[in-house]
Amino acid sequence: MIQDDIIHELQFIPEAKLFELYDFIHYFRLGLNAEKVKIDKTMCLESLKKIQQGDLTGFSEIQDINAHIQNLKNEIS
Prior knowledge:
This protein is mostly helical. It has a domain of 34 residues. The chain is 71% helix and 0% strand. It starts with a helix and ends with a helix.
């Protein structure tokens, strides 16, 4: 299995270089996750314009922001 091969190769990478490799893998994975999420730019811009005008109609209130953020993170990963 390819994951086993990757793990085996990690043994031969110097400790100092593992941080760079981790960053590469981490941001590569985040990029893959971002490809799954399609963002409607027009809708986002319209929502921002409404917020700037103080018009919050149509927006739901978030009671627990930390729980909401954690839920969003769970959806992405």
